[in-house]
Amino acid sequence: MSDTRRRVKVYTLNEDRQWDDRGTGHVSSTYVEELKGMSLLVRAESDGSLLLESKINPNTAYQKQQDTLIVWSEAENYDLALSFQEKAGCDEIWEKICQVQGKDPSVEVTQDLIDESEEERFEEMPETSHLIDLPTCELNKLEEIADLVTSVLSSPIRREKLALALENEGYIKKLLQLFQACENLENTEGLHHLYEIIRGILFLNKATLFEVMFSDECIMDVVGCLEYDPALAQPKRHREFLTKTAKFKEVIPITDSELRQKIHQTYRVQYIQDIILPTPSVFEENFLSTLTSFIFFNKVEIVSMLQEDEKFLSEVFAQLTDEATDDDKRRELVNFFKEFCAFSQTLQPQNRDAFFKTLAKLGILPALEIVMGMDDLQVRSAATDIFSYLVEFSPSMVREFVMQEAQQSDDDILLINVVIEQMICDSDPELGGAVQLMGLLRTLIDPENMLATNNKTEKSEFLNFFYNHCMHVLTAPLLTNTSEDKCENDNIVGPNKNSTICPDNYQTAQLLALILELLTFCVEHHTYHIKNYIMNKDLLRRVLVLMNSKHTFLALCALRFMRRIIGLKDEFYNRYITKGNLFEPVINALLDNGTRYNLLNSAVIELFEFIRVEDIKSLTAHIVENFYKALESIEYVQTFKGLKTKYEQEKDRQNQKLNSVPSILRSNRFRRDAKALEEDEELWFNEDEEEEGKAVVAPVEKSKPEDDFPDSYEKFMETKKAKESEDKENLPKRTSSGSFKFTFSHSTSAANGANSTNNKSVVAQTPPATSNGSSSKTTNLATSVTATKGSLVGLVDYPDDEEEDEEEETSPRKRPRLGS
């Protein structure tokens, strides 16, 4: 259909008194048999479907506003509006409506708006439809006029009649002339009356009156009247602000005079609504609904007019990205775009879709990349706001751009890395900008809003890109603040333990908490990508260094990260935790917290309670075998006793199974199962090494997987007696303090990118009970690292390992690994 006269948008008013766009189509008026009368029909221009079918009822009040709008109420609390592309089309349909209702098309409203109670009150009265008689517009009548305007506000029918009277007699312009006279005469009482009158006229909620009041000729006098609030000792200076302080900046000259006028008008009306008029009470909130609609439709028009002027937008982009543009000019350009995007939020989804596609086509993302990296804080802040509009509108569009960009640019200048760097370098002590950017990053890496099409899977492509090109930038502050030289201090036990170097700076701690929040989100949603990254970087060990932070919120963030990992109940993670002895910093934190009953205490206990309730066997065995002595004195919860009980029950179950199997089959079965599991595990880690470098937790040549701990335990018991004399010299020696000294080996080469194995010291919390029944709180356990053939490192190193290599090859039995 090419007839643009009949082209309309259909709007409905929602519960929040905002207009919702129901679609664009072409309107016609025709007789509909089902409705038994002339009706308005709107068919969608896209597919011809019926957007609106509304009978023109003889008693419905239709209003014509701004020459191109027809508004009416279909039922209680259901308002409709038709916004015409052309005035001629609006006039044509208006004539049809007036024809059905027997009205003159020159009227702006076809019926008096009456509520039910008033209808009943007036139906028995003689003809009262004549207009309200207004007092003559003179200075000595101002008080009478003010009383009249105030008195009609409670009655819808009288509001309508007053509005018609004001409109017909050109009364508003006469009132504004009186205002000028009062101001010249400094007639304070008259000015106070005019304030009440103008405020009351605004509350009449009539679009036709707004068009007069907000015209270029009248609006500043209307603002002037509203300065003289009787409640204020001194009048406000709103006109001074609007004319002198508020400057209209044209970043690129706007040649369209209608557009300029519309922008000025919208700014001033918004100022009246937001600044001058008091916040309406519950009883007044609907008085200004038409004012809200007036601003809304103005903004839609402004965005549409600017969007259609591609020459204007192209010029803005050209200057924004031009290196020759000076800083002040660029700041103005960015602020213009920020406001432009804010205006676009008034558009309905399909119009907003077209708006952002226009911006994308013109190159908004490359332009943002340039301005987000600038030194000017104001420019960066505005650019962040624009970026947030784009991410909120279409995360996929942003993701697609950065992946294409990665093929041509270095990692340093990728848009996402620029965003991460802005987050890391936020100078605000409260990190307001960083919090906003972290939210945007989370939206971008959220698999929930990633598309899977037949041709490609956005999720796998983007996550591969993110972990290869961006993750190292995100984790850099975390790895720097928990680096090896700092981590070594982490192993100091006793009175010096709290001297561990942890980020004492509040701002740094806040930043690390944000990064940890994002990483915790990744653990929950990214499965194998984040798993490989944690294993390769030994990331959990680094994070747990922060359990020593003096900022409890940061320690809790670190704990939450570990809790999410354990919550996945993934045996790869469980093996990583037990082999790395990563419960040790958590238990240290619990013991250091002492008897204080606080969030840290509750969170740590909840972690262990989860392991007990979910019966995670590998972790239960590790905790009981290594840390039970330190924890058995904690009796105000039954968690740790419960873990011991679970451990012993499982041990008994395995004993019964073993007793029912002949000894020869038993030993063979265990050898076969252990080997099969070791081969699987080794294969998995080797695959990781090929993809992302050397795994931190190197495959252990002859270790048992922790989820089979009862088998390992029985195998240990079985071999213990036979090997006791042979292994005596290799068993842990009791130190002078009465505690045991264990030796653990860890490969951390992937964490620092080196190929060699680095020394790493760990504490195993296994002090024996002292003579008075209490347990020693912490135990210093030295560790050493021994480089082994290839990349394989044993969990426990024995002094005579080399001598026994040959014996192990021929012996049917393997030495039990005490450290596992």
From TrEMBL:
Residues 682-692, 798-809 have a biased composition (Acidic residues). It comes from Phyllostomus discolor (pale spear-nosed bat). Residues 733-744, 760-789 have a biased composition (Polar residues). Residues 745-759 have a biased composition (Low complexity). Residues 5-101 form the PP4R3 EVH1-like domain. Gene3D superfamilies: Leucine-rich Repeat Variant, Pleckstrin-homology domain (PH domain)/Phosphotyrosine-binding domain (PTB). The lineage of its organism: Eukaryota, Metazoa, Chordata, Craniata, Vertebrata. GO terms for cellular component: nucleoplasm; protein phosphatase 4 complex. This is Protein phosphatase 4 regulatory subunit 3B.
